[in-house]
Amino acid sequence: MKHVTHARKLILLFFIVSLSACSSRSLPESEPRASLTTDVNNYQYLIGPGDNLTIFVWRNPEISGSFIVRPDGKVTTSLVEDIVVAGKTPTDLAREIEEQLATFINSPRVTVSVNNFQGPFSEQVRVIGEATNPRAINYTQHMTLLDLMIQVGGLTEFADGNRAKLVRVINGQQKSFDVDISDLIKKGDISKNIDILPGDIVIIPEAWF
Q: Is there a single domain that holds both residue 22 and residue 66?
């Protein structure tokens, strides 16, 4: 057991050290990144595998219906087979389906709604390391670090929350930022709360005793 714990420490330490060269004490308020969401106010939901789509074609109920997005990111409808839908907004998908249906229907009008939200893996937020329940979480607009920590059950007794890192893709490059999770959730220092964006990764190391 001691060997396993030591190995976990080494893995997390290596991950954090490898990111330290691009570490910063302050997060940018708004910078472009590899996502349609560049800040908390312009969030656009992207369809992902596992989503349940309702595609409604006006005046054509026979080709309307509910469709599950396959693991390959596609769906098959009555008239259009293997449409790539993953990574698109519902509005963009509706316009694309209209273009394809125009071959069969005069001036089709399509609406797309999403049920059972999953989203693309690239848009999910991940927490690894010394969280009570580390996992990937579906992003929701205006999500904060505190919201994220509540969903993963907070820190373990072995966590060094003030040495945690947030990894974010900005301009196509991975950058790392320091986050003080212990001060946030144990001392109630709300000034340590920050906005989370799709694709963020939070790494929580184990304390060195």
A: no
Chain centroid to Cα 128, Å, comes to: 14
Distance CA 27, CA 2 (A): 36
* pTM, entire model: 0.75
Query: Domain range holding 22?
Result: 2-42+121-204
CA 133 and chain centroid, separation: 17
CA angle 162, 163, 167 (to 5 degrees): 110
Token output for 170: 């900005």
Residue 68 included in any domain: yes
Element (H, E) at 5: helix 2-19
Residue range 90-118, pLDDT digits in tens = 999 999 999 989 988 899 999 999 998 88
Q: Identify residue 174 by its one-letter amino acid code.
A: Q
Tokens representing residue 126 in the block: 């991940």
The torsion angles phi and psi of 20, rounded to 5 degrees, stand at -65, -25
**Residue in 39, 49, 47 with CA at minimum distance from that of residue 73:** 49
Q: What angle do CA 75, 82, 121 make, to 5 degrees?
A: 55
Q: DSSP letter at 3? A: H
Residue 101 belongs to some domain of the structure: yes
